[in-house]
Amino acid sequence: MALSFQTIRPLFQTGSSASSRWLSYVGLGIGVLLLLCSAQMFVNIQLLLQRNNVQKSGYDFISVTRTVTNATMGQPDKNLFHEGEIAEVRKQPFVEGVAPLLANRYRVQMGAGAMIPMRIDLFLETLENEFIDTLPPTFTWAPGQEQVPLIVSSDFLEAYNVFAPGQGLPQLSSETVTTIPLLLTCSGRGRQLQFYARIVAFSDRINSVLVPKTFLDWTNNEIGEGPDQGSARLFVKTKDANDPKLLAFLDERGYKVNSDKTKFGRTKGVLQGIFTGLGIFGLLVVVLALMLFSFYLQLVIARSRESLQLLLTLGYSPKWLSRKVSNRFVPVYIGIVLSTVAATQAIQWAFHHLAMYDRPELQTLVHWSVPALAVLLIGVSVLTNYRLVRKLVAQLGEGA
Amino acid sequence: MSLHLQQLLPTYFDASRSETSEVWGKDLRFDKGQRVKIVAPSGSGKTSLMHFLYGLRRSYTGSVHIGGTTLGNLDAEGLALVRQQQLSVVLQDLRLFPDRTVLENLEIKRQLAPYHEAEKITEMAARLGLSGKLGARCGTCSYGEQQRVAIIRALLQPFDYLLLDEPFSHLDNRNAEIAMGLMLEEAEARGAAILFADLERVEFFPYSTLLHL
Fold first, then answer.
1. Shortest distance, CA A245 to any CA of chain B (angstroms)
2. Alpha helices per DSSP H over chain B
3. Residues A389 and A273 in one domain
4. Does one domain contain both A148 and A257?
5. Membrane-spanning residues where (chain A) (predicted)?
């Protein structure tokens, strides 16, 4: 027959200290509620702001340049990225990949013949294929090939269609543009090379005119002027463009980032900071409540000192007594923590339905981390109580 | 199984006490089934001896071994186990819960290491004249009644050694003899030894060994 605590339960006097016990219960409830709500809000912020990123294949691609100031103007070595700097960016844990955007070192002019009677100077860049969002299989070039495929930013077409009517030029659809034969004239080192070009895709990600790397390397080699001085732009592949660590890293080095892609990250950083602070405050309240409760336990044991000593004298196991005394409060702890989980659930429901109008990014149910945290808190409370009671009973046992 | 006292001497006694005592500073071995009478005048350390043997105090030199285990080396858990299974005691100061009833006091011990069924309490109480007192708070009982409660409590668990420290100090001869009879029966049933320390010889205790403290 298992030894029952019922027989000896009346020996433990909780007496007139009930007020301090209830105070500690209320404190524990408030602290746990603050902690759980902070954890849930932390998750909500992540979910709400992550959806504002332009993600393709689960990654964000951001363009990074160096800030050109009056002091660095005209000094390419200070405004371009060097190999060492690229390697440093690459080894950061929040960076999945880096590719420099390489540009032409010769003059490029483009015309569209009689259909669009205009001729413009432009720049060409190249980027590793892995970083291009719209990559058709025709985006290749080999020396001797007359036709050069181009990938152009969709913003450029939009800009053209804005000013074209005012210049007496036709507005064009993206499908039409891809059928227009273009003429590229590349000049440098006293030579002039001509190629036919065709736009094969538009990119939402890269604000440039891209050509295959083989073309740019070949033409730079043939007619490029001046030495290769590095890249003015880097393309960074990351899981989250709003990662505060990534932003802090870029800020620290004075690198400039496309702000509309990262502004949510900065807002997120601030909000997460606020809720982390609130979570820490909640944790402090929990610690204070547990301390108050430990004082209450000490009082109970001090009042029941003689009974406990006599039980030990009779042969009761100190371990068993400690477990039974501390376990008396386990249902109370579980009750408090479960109530706070329910309250957190109610708050989350109100936040989702009433404040966020059922936004699909959010869930009405609390995140799994909230009940997990609640279980952890129960475990910590029970363990700390048991250890305290065990220590006090062991001290009593020295005199029994 | 034996209880072995090796050069046992309280730290607050002079070493010369071992020259006049048959217990202090001596090597003694008590086997199961033995009846040992320890006669000790006031101040000779009778209660100290019982406390040492029950593991209540460790202010002694030498050692106490029970079944090969050194009592002084046991931790609190080990000591609790020995008190549940091997040693039982009737202390001079009784140590009852004054706010609990006689029955509750007895149940607290019985349930710890049940040797008898709950009905046995009623039977023992009737034998020692406590039938009407089972529902009374111990604090309201006379000292003689409390002494009988302490005696019954000591008999509700398994034991190899029953330690008695002046168990009849507040009982008349008739009641003391009845209580002794009960203790002898219970010890007999367990094959246990009795170590009985008192101020003077008690005629109705059939000792096999007599020692002067």
1. 53
2. 17-20, 46-54, 76-85, 102-112, 119-127, 143-154, 173-190
3. yes
4. no
5. 22-43, 274-297, 329-351, 366-386
> Which residues in chain A touch residue B50, judged by CB atoms under 8 angstroms apart?
none
Beta-carbon separation of B83 and A310 below 8 A: no
Domain with A194, as residue range(s), is 106-225
Three-state secondary structure of A64-100: EEECCCCCCCCCHHHHCECHHHHHHHHCCCCEEEEEE
Regarding whether A277 and A198 lie in a shared domain, the answer is no
* Class for the domain spanning B2-212: alpha beta
Residue A306 structure tokens: 């003689």
Q: Could you state, in order of their start, the residue ranges of all structural domains in chain B?
A: 2-212
Per-residue pLDDT of A126-162, as tens digits, reads 988 888 878 888 899 999 898 999 999 888 888 888 8
Q: Is the pTM of this model over 0.90?
A: no
Question: For residue A239, is pLDDT > 70?
Answer: yes
Cα–Cα distance measured from residue B103 to residue B149, given in angstroms and rounded to the nearest whole number: 9
Render pLDDT for B93-125 as a digit per residue (tens, 0 to 9): 989 999 999 999 999 999 998 999 999 999 999
Domain count, chain A: 3
B84 contacts on A by Cβ (under 8 Å)? 315
State whether residue A316 sits within 8 Å of chain B by CB. yes
Q: What is the pLDDT of residues A240-295, one digit of tens each?
A: 777 778 888 888 888 887 655 555 556 666 777 787 887 788 788 778 777 877 77
Query: In this structure, what token pair is assigned to residue A257?
Result: 């980032």
Structure tokens at A374: 């609640």
Chain position carrying tokens 């405050």: A281
Q: What are phi and psi of A259, to 5 degrees?
A: -70, -30
Average pLDDT, integer, range A301-308:
86
A383 in contact with B at a CB cutoff of 8 Å? Answer: no
pLDDT confidence of residue A47 = 80
Number of Cβ atoms within 10 Å of the Cβ of B76:
18
Measure the N-to-C terminal CA separation of chain A; round to a whole number of Å: 26
Beta-ladder partners of B96: none
Cα separation, B9 vs B5, whole angstroms = 10
- The secondary structure of B39-101 as a DSSP string is E--TTSSHHHHHHHHHTS---EEEEEEETTEEGGG--HHHHHHHHHHTEEEE-TT----TTSB
